[in-house]
Amino acid sequence: MAKMNFHHLGIPTEEAKGGEQYLEKYKLFHSGYETSPYGVEWMRFEPGCPLPELVQRIPHVAFEVEDLEAAIAGQEVLIPPNSPSPGVRVAFVVHNGAPIEFLEFGRRFPTAEEMQREDRER
Fold first, then answer.
1. For the domain that residue 100 is a member of, what is the CATH number?
2. Which long-range contacts (CB under 8 A, 24 or more apart) does 17-26 make?
3. For the whole prediction, is pTM greater than 0.85?
4. What contacts 24+ positions apart, CB below 8 Å, involve 28-37?
5. Per-residue pLDDT reduced to its tens digit, 11-58
6. Spatial contact of 109 and 86, defined as CB atoms under 8 Å apart
7. What pLDDT is stored for residue 78 in this prediction?
8. Which of 10, 77, 102, 112 has its CA 20 to 30 A from that of 60?
9. What domain range includes position 20?
């Protein structure tokens, strides 16, 4: 198993929380991680959110890994590797019915929009 370090606990909520940030692409408000000493992140989803229902209903634990592909190898992939923002790649797997998130930080990874733009330009 790949080396991993706890990053955060994502908890779905229907309640608006202070300091929410909005991710339009995912129709998702998130808050709390930056200020929580325990890494608790609240997630509030809008109707039409494209993320799997499992992520919208069940809390997930997230781990930082050095090699995202190694971390998900042989696992049931729920959300394939993607880059929601520059410098980070994420993927979700399912373990015993629960969503698990892996994050890889470091070099600048192109976002999905940048990769699509590059494909169109080719």
1. 3.10.180.10
2. 17/42, 17/44, 20/44, 23/84, 25/50, 25/84, 26/50, 26/51, 26/84
3. no
4. 33/8, 36/8
5. 999 999 999 999 998 999 999 988 999 999 999 999 999 999 999 999
6. yes
7. 98
8. 112
9. 4-121
